[in-house]
Amino acid sequence: MIGQSRELTVVRIPLRSAKHHFGASVSRGTRPYNEDAFQAGVIEVAAFAKKAPISLTRTQGVIGAGEGTSADSASGDPQVFYFGVFDGHGGAECSGYLREQLHTYIEESARQFELGSSLRKKTIGPDHGPMEPGVEDSSAEDGEQTQTAECEPQLQPEVNATKLVDLERSLTKQWSETVGGYFKRFRPEHFQMGTSGRHQPQPPPKSRGAKATDVNSGIEAVMTYAFLKADLDFITAQAKRVDEDMVQSDRALNDGEILGEASRPREHVQGPKRFKGGSTCSVAMVSTPTPTPFWHPASPSSLITAHVGDTRILLCSTASGQAVPLTTNHHPSSPGEGSRLRRYAATFVTDSFGEERMTGLANTRAFGDMQSKRIGVSAEPEIRRMELKPAEYSFMVLASDGITGTMSDQEIVDTVKEARTPDQGAKDVVAFATEVSKEGDNATCLVVRLGGWERRSEGGMGAMGTREVRDWRRQEAIDPRSRRT
Fold first, then answer.
1. How does pLDDT run across 394-450, given as a tens digit for each residue?
2. Contacts of 73 (CB under 8 A, 6+ apart)
3. Cβ(168)–Cβ(198) below 8 Å
4. Start-end of H helices in 83-218
5. For residue 36, what are the β-bridge partners?
6. Which of 112, 177, 391, 433 has the greatest CB tally within 10 Å of its CB?
7. In 3D, which of 372, 363, 418 has the Cα closest to residue 394?
8. What are phi and psi of 212, to 5 degrees?
């Protein structure tokens, strides 16, 4: 760019150090160790944002003073941001594996599917080639004025349809042969090969190397494939390990290491013994159509959430101040999950707390849990896509069940509203949940700033809607007489 000003200089700041844009807090509660994990950063995948209007892209060369610009990715698209929270059970092996490896599976799946960018750049105007269809050139002699154009329809990211179908069929076949049971007739919702009862199977394209632009063959298919592939690799690696028994067999201390490389394990799935636990997962990815970051008040963005289990993702509406949940709990009490699994799981029971469980598990979807895979405990994600208008939402919250099981959705967002920064908001939520919790579960909270952050207290009753309830709960928690039975 010619004549680049001081305001346009790109400065790379580690996301976890930007406390005014992102905050995270973790507490183990009263548990002896912490099984939760989280991840935040940028991910190398093609942009999936809705293409910006032509009238907006033509004015990108004139950026106001003080407006930030984010760095482009290696592909030339604006960076895609990645946030995830993982709640392990039975140990921290699975949640730690997802923290370190899940984003790499998403990147690799996008590469295998040859996922293309939704931001197709076209040169327009008399000096740059042909005009866009339906747009008339109204440039004056000085070339400064152009006619405003309507927003184009959204362009879905392209993938190689032939590879897509082949990879999806190969993965479902591996699940069928490796696990069996429920997965013998497994048809994920966002796979091109079809799903039982909801979508008709779609035949592969006739021509080799053809491109597909269907909504089920874009980023949603990539996310589904990455989740299922990561889960299959994890349980396969655990099945190869020796099951822990009461009698310790004679093994070398470096049995789990490569000869000559004592610090390097055999595989990226850690642990020398078989791990039978698992982890829930909620992931959010944000993509913008322009280099302006998603937290800028004038920037639109696209949000993709992929969810497994009972972790939670919330948005706070700027206009109403209400909490907007983007996920639902995958519990046996859910009608959809119950009907999906009752053909295979005959042991639905209700525990002493009134919660319905399946073979001792509280979640019907999770990573790991290898002993329950045959009856349908799957890592197939529930995927949701939202187009966020400029400053439509104030912030996003990702939380584990140690928080959502203690606080309501509205209590969580109202607590964040009172904080000065997202970092302080995450700490306040975890502190309150730990203080009033009776179970003492691990608590993890991530708060991500969005375009309406500065107006977070203007909508509805602001933070006053649940303040009295929160004050009463805090007072009840610190009152020693309230715990008498």
1. 999 999 999 999 999 999 999 999 999 999 999 999 999 999 988 888 999 999 999
2. 42, 44, 79, 80
3. no
4. 93-112, 161-178
5. 87
6. 433
7. 418
8. -120, 140
Amino acid at 230: A
Cα 229 from Cα 223, distance rounded (Å): 10
What does the block give as tokens for 236?
A: 């396969």
Tokens of residue 175, six digits: 């699940």
- What whole-number distance in Å separates Cα of residue 479 and Cα of residue 485? 13
Q: Is the pTM of this model over 0.85?
A: no
Summarised one tens digit per residue, pLDDT across range 114-153 is 888 888 654 444 444 444 444 444 444 444 444 433 444 4
Contacts of 89 (CB under 8 A, 6+ apart): 35, 277, 278, 279, 280, 366
Number of residues in the chain: 485
Structure tokens at 219: 């980023």
- Helices 467-478 & 422-436, crossing angle to 10 degrees? 50
What are the tokens at 420? Answer: 């000065």
Nearest residue to 9 via CA among 75, 73, 63, 82: 63
Closest of 193, 199, 197 to residue 176, by C-alpha: 193
Q: Backbone phi, then psi, for 433, in 5-degree steps?
A: -65, -40
